[in-house]
Amino acid sequence: MLLTASLPCLIVILTWLWPLSLPLAFKIPLGLLMLGASQYLYWCKLSSGSVFVPQFPRPVIILFNWAFGAILFLALLQIALYLGALADALVHWQFVSIPDSVRLAAAGVAGLLAAIGVAGAIRVPTVRDVTVTIPGLPAAFEGYRLLQLSDLHISRLFPTRWTQAVVDRANAAGADLIVVTGDFIDGSVAMRRADIAPLKNLHAPDGVFAIPGNHEYFFDYREWMQHLSDLGMTMLLNAHTVLTRNGAHLVLAGVTDLSAPAHGQTGPDLEAALAGRPPNSPIVLMDHQPRTAQTAADRGVALQLSGHTHGGMLPGLARLVARGNNGFVSGRYSVGNMTLYVSNGTGLWPGFALRLFCPPEITRFCLRAGPAQ
């Protein structure tokens, strides 16, 4: 991990900083600062004992993410510049040359992109409206509004004030039901107690339901499940609940995360989650990771709500994220007769807080009836 994080920095030092016409007395301290910034995850581990929990003040976390982002973007820009300069040199049969002015301009662009990326990552999301047609949806649930939060990653980067703003926006959306599809936190209950406290104010007429994400298993899973329940959320751990209106039913089910067995906990069990449900009732499934969506579709699920991918965060990176999730990374997909929706996330992991062209979201679904299958 340290080598991977260092590679963009080494590219920048060797191809950008070293060739600049600057005195060594300037280059050496700047190079050391870059190396220090590139080891952000190492400093995170020193601060809390885990790379997943930076326990620095929020401005320091923002600065680290900006610096790491600027180094990453500058490394990519330098590679592009060198490829262009090499092509030009071959055409004109001359030495490869990149003026200092071009290098400095690239640094400015990289710094600006990183600033935009961090600002986009840490803002309070707006509500995104999505209409989903569900075959056989009972008339009583026509126009039913369901609000999804996902990947909050409540932490020093997303503290109490941010959480309260998300809660206020979610409550104001006027949904009939609120669901949270995992990755509530980064840190232990003791670390995050105050930051997560505003979630107790989430409310909707039909309740607030949730499932764990993979990050809950990193930090005292059982304690977190109890604490989230104490905050008023109904945790659907391989279980379901039945929503009833005028004698008609809609099933809301949830499964645990795919990473659970690696932490000695019960893995996702869709059969158990759907056992005993009313027959012929549409099923909405919460599953933090989208990669097994085909299995849910084969079991007759009408709508699956997932997160986990953070929408890919950056162009190019989204392609890699998609490969690890069976091609599912952001937005709506048709999987057989099922609709899969993968949220970009309401927050994201503070160890890599950058977003470009991939805004965070609070998602409000409006359910509409379609012809029965």
UniProtKB/TrEMBL annotation:
GO aspect biological process, one term: lipid A biosynthetic process
Record Pfam families: Metallophos
Keyword field: Hydrolase, Membrane, Metal-binding, Transmembrane, Transmembrane helix
Highest rank taxon of the organism: Bacteria
MF-aspect GO terms: metal ion binding; UDP-2,3-diacylglucosamine hydrolase activity
Domain Calcineurin-like phosphoesterase: 145-311
Transmembrane region(s): 60-83, 104-122
Record-linked InterPro entries: Calcineurin-like_PHP, Metallo-depent_PP-like, Metallophosphoesterase_sf
GO cellular component, one term: membrane
PANTHER family: PHOSPHODIESTERASE YAEI (PTHR31302:SF31), TRANSMEMBRANE PROTEIN WITH METALLOPHOSPHOESTERASE DOMAIN-RELATED (PTHR31302)
Name of the protein described by the UniProt record: Metallophosphoesterase
